[in-house]
Specification:
alpha+beta, D-amino Acid Aminotransferase, Chain A, domain 1, globular, 7 helices, 2 domains, nine-stranded mixed sheet
């Protein structure tokens, strides 16, 4: 696996121009920086191809509109950014293509008399070989925490302080991730991944009617893979009695959970259905993006 210093260069998209990431600058008055008036999206790119871009684009449009910005002109800029940045993806390398739409730069006022022009930024950063192959891993530990985030987690915005605080709590507890639990006791999601449980050979995940993000990988598992996955309201009792627990996301696909609140999940090992799903997702990824060039 090549060290970061040997990876291809990172690129940025700012002011409708592609430039080396280390040269990119955004205004101090940008409303994304001042007020977190911004939405973002992350997609895997390899060999110039994007994984599930149509799904990501639709979610990005929904998040942008949720923030209060007009999605139409921003999506035009987004498409330009995606074309320009994906063209810089070095063949055989996987990269993360990051996009962020903001309210633009203007006077520091909650509602300025003349709203500034919204802005679209992007970056493309290559990953070490094998970074996205490390699934489901040997299993991670999680803790459960009350959902103290803002109540619009269904939009993918930069309002992530709650997730950062929960990850800090997890680290302080010797865990890797945290799972949010609603005030009514219903399980929601992890800080940056969706939650799934396995019981009697079936996969269950909390419904999108709750305060959680509609994950793209979650959608693939529910609707494209024949693994008997379904939505259900889940509680701590379900979590503690599950046969298997795993998390899903664009960057990790399937990540096994083997400990919850310092207690083992079942026998404390990665379960067979989790391994199967990880394999299916990796095969799908390779089929769509092509293979990584061996290091």
């Amino acid at each position: 696996m090549p060290p970061p210093s040997t990876l291809p260069p990172a690129w940025a998209f700012v002011d409708d121009e592609v430039l080396p990431a280390e040269q990119a600058r955004i205004p101090l008055e940008d409303r994304g920086f001042l007020f977190a008036e911004s939405a973002y999206e992350v997609v895997l790119c390899r060999n110039g191809r994007l994984l599930d871009w149509d799904k990501h684009r639709a979610r990005f449009a929904r998040s942008v509109e949720g923030v209060g910005l007009d999605p139409l002109p921003l999506l035009v800029a987004t498409d330009r950014a995606v074309r320009a940045l994906s063209a810089r993806n070095e063949s055989g390398f996987t990269a993360l293509l990051y996009l962020q739409a903001t309210g633009g730069a203007g006077p520091r006022d909650h509602l300025p008399l003349r709203p500034p022009q919204p802005a679209l930024y992007g970056t493309l950063r290559h990953l070490p070989h094998g970074r996205v192959d490390g699934i489901p891993g040997s299993g991670c530990a999680v803790i459960t925490v009350p959902d103290f985030r803002w109540q619009r987690a269904t939009w993918k915005t930069t309002q992530l302080l709650g997730a950062i605080q929960a990850k800090r709590l997890a680290k302080e507890s010797g865990a890797d991730e945290a799972i949010f639990v609603g005030a009514d006791g219903k399980l929601l999601e992890a800080c940056s991944m969706n939650l799934m449980l396995v019981r009697e050979g079936r996969v269950f995940t909390p419904p999108l009617t709750l305060n959680l993000l509609p994950g793209v990988t979650r959608d693939v598992i529910l609707n494209e893979l024949d693994v008997g996955a379904t939505e259900a309201l889940l509680t701590m009792e379900d979590l503690c009695s599950a046969d298997e627990v795993f998390l899903s996301s664009t960057t990790r696909a399937v990540l096994a959970v083997t400990r919850v609140d310092a207690r083992p999940v079942a026998d404390g090992r990665v379960g067979p259905l989790t391994r199967k799903l990880a394999r299916l997702m990796l095969e799908r990824q390779t089929r769509i993006l092509g293979a990584e060039t061996p290091a």
